[in-house]
Amino acid sequence: MTNYNAQQIHLKSRPKGLPTQDNFEIVEVELTPPQKNEVLVQNLYMSVDPYMRGRMRAEGVYAEPYALNQPMYGGAVGEVIESNNENLQKGDIVLNGGAWQDKLIATADTLTKLTPFDKNRLSLYLGTLGMPGMTAYVGLFKFGEPKKGETVFVSAASGAVGANVCQIAKQLGCRVIGSVGSDEKAQWLLDECKVDEVINYKACGDLTQALAKAAPNGVDVYFENVGGSHLEATLNVMNHFGRVAACGMISTYNNSEPAPGPNNLMLIVGKKVRINGFIVFDHNDMRAQFLSDMESWVKDRKIVVRETVVEGLDNSVDAFLALFSGDNFGKMIVKM
Ligand SMILES: NC(=O)c1ccc[n+]([C@@H]2O[C@H](COP(=O)([O-])OP(=O)(O)OC[C@H]3O[C@@H](n4cnc5c(N)ncnc54)[C@H](OP(=O)(O)O)[C@@H]3O)[C@@H](O)[C@H]2O)c1
Known about the structure:
Elements lengths: L4 E7 L12 E7 L7 E10 L4 H4 L20 E8 L9 E4 L6 E5 L4 E2 L17 H14 L6 E5 L6 H10 L3 E6 L2 H9 L5 E4 L6 H8 L4 E6 L4 H9 E9 L20 H4 L3 E4 L9 H13 L7 E5 L4 H10 L5 E5 L1
Helix pairs in contact: 2-3, 2-8, 5-6
Bound molecules: NADP nicotinamide-adenine-dinucleotide phosphate.
């Protein structure tokens, strides 16, 4: 007998500032058995990502806002346990949009069947082989356009996106500088990801001075994940015709009021800096190439992967909040 009982995390109220547990609720539901073209999926892993904070705002940011008192959603990997679709069988592993839920009913066309290269590493499809890995790939190649010998600076450098950016840029023959919030993360980037210099932005004092010291020839490409003082410091040391791949600005995501802007934006003009915002979902034309390259780099250990794995849907809110305190190290994954 199939069990249709599921647990979901609902958004109960819209956070002001940093979210708290009170903004969320765990809810037990009984799902309706799958109808034609629908399948029942048991999730195995789900992703928590910084962009979800934007979805908790009534106005959203670039993604649809989450509705109150409804299950939240996002990337997850699960196993088909019942199928009413001819292309999906019981036991198939599928990428789905049903994060924050341990089980869900989904129409077959919303699922991507995976052919994992290692069945013991399914969470990779939420990290290095998934959305964050593709963000690193698209942002660096399409918008950073680094050339051999250039200096690439990456903020949130040990995270799901940043660690991949650092390692791809190293493979391209660039001098890579990362910024992180702890010495442990810094050491890992130096030892395992072979980056050239790491700045602990919490301990370095003046960030412009630290960056100028780490990048004596200036910065050619900035992979922007943090915003605020990181952007300001980078513009100070950016070279003429530098490129900024503007991926995210996590330091601003919990602001209730807009933060003051960097005080040196005029440098963009004089230094002829190109700043490109981008959203990974607009670049699916690069998906096949990304997957082929990244899978082979992971297999050959040209890209090393770090994850923080939190167990249980009931700990998923804590896992999400850890993204803002820096308590994740590498890709944050919730194992169901
Ligand atoms: N444009 C797109 O399509 C796209 C897609 C995916 C992700 N993103 C963006 O990429 C960035 C990284 O995402 P991710 O998934 O890879 O997250 P992540 O780096 O795995 O986790 C977030 C990290 O950000 C750092 N951080 C948090 N608050 C900070 C603050 N106030 N100042 C400086 N650093 C702070 C923390 O690292 P430390 O310990 O080092 O401080 C934390 O571990 C985010 O801005 C995200 O929104 C954009």
